[in-house]
Amino acid sequence: MIHPIDRHRAIERFEAIPHLALGHYPTPLEKLPRFKAALGCSQRLYIKREDLAGAGLGGNKVRKLEYIFSEVLRDGADTVITCGGLRSNHCRVTAMLAAKLGLTCVLVMNEPAHPYAATPASYAINEWVGARIVRVADRRERAPTMERIAGELRAAGQKPAIIPLGASTPVGALGQVSAMQELAGQLGELRFDFDAVFFSTSSGGTQAGLLAGKALFLDPETQLYGVSADDPSLSIQETVGGILREIGERLRLPFDERIQVDDRQVGGGYGVETEAGREALQLLAHSEGILLDPVYTAKAMAGMMAAIRSGALAAEARVLFWHTGGQMALFYT
Ligand SMILES: Cc1ncc(COP(=O)(O)O)c(C=O)c1O
Prior knowledge:
The chain has helices at 4-15, 33-39, 60-74, 89-101, 121-128, 142-155, 170-190, 205-217, 233-251, 275-288, 297-309; strands spanning 29-31, 44-48, 79-85, 104-110, 132-136, 160-162, 196-201, 223-228, 260-262, 318-322. The protein has 333 residues and is an alpha/beta fold. It folds into two domains: 4-58 and 169-330, Rossmann fold, CATH 3.40.50.1100; 62-167, Rossmann fold (3-Layer(aba) Sandwich), CATH 3.40.50.1100. A six-stranded mixed beta sheet has the order 1-2-10-7-8-9, with helices on both faces. It starts with a helix and ends in an 11-residue tail after the last strand. The relative contact order is 0.17. It binds pyridoxal-5'-phosphate (PLP). Pyridoxal-5'-phosphate binds at residues 59-60, 89-90, 166, 168, 200-207, 293, 296-297, 324-326.
């Protein structure tokens, strides 16, 4: 149990951390009555529309980058370098926000396991907003290539800053702490708490930030469930644990949160669609007119549906789906 005074001081430290305002807030918190009926469940279902945070259907990346870009500008960098797959949401949102802030952006992007039949819209947008794209054959080449490019730019007199994969650093994760603070304000008005929150997890920043935010702002009984888009539970749990520890050091509050990761929806791996994911995408689209993406959020929703159908959640539970965005993956040019 966290002592209320320690929590209060940690919140003050969190609120003093500088960040930019780059998104559109508060993101809506909505009921899903028709989805509930379509599922035929008794639980009360809600959705937090973080997909609407701004910057090109930026989703969870916008809040992370509000904290990261604040440090980039503070340090006087003129160029950001980051990495991801060809359809990466993180790369696209970084490139769009870099354009908005007048910074040069270099993207190191690895080829997909199976080539796309057409150009992903997300990739084309990077070109439209003026990012320089360096393609590498394998994801293992991303980090050394970013270092090499940073060295070349420094030698040419520029000031580059590397943003690690997914902006999943302790600083980036603070964006999700702010999202939880926003949710707590919405729940204060509605006068209830959630029993369970489901979301997509991969590079760990989102889950670490949400857990820290939950410890600071939500009912301690609320359970957070990350549904893996790619990696095994153990490896994501380790990454999340590391980021959470560092956030705790910054806020001087040791977090003791359960890191729950479900890797049963991964199927064939990163970006490979699954039948359960397709069902989740279609059911939410048909019943509520809300789109998921096949890479992250459809698998996360499939995990939530599986938990509901298996009877793992109490009949009256209030369950929140945290929509992290990514729908640009549905579009090609
Ligand atoms: C749409 C979407 N949802 C979820 C995630 C997972 O977030 P994280 O990498 O912080 O675990 C990502 C990024 O990887 C994403 O682009």
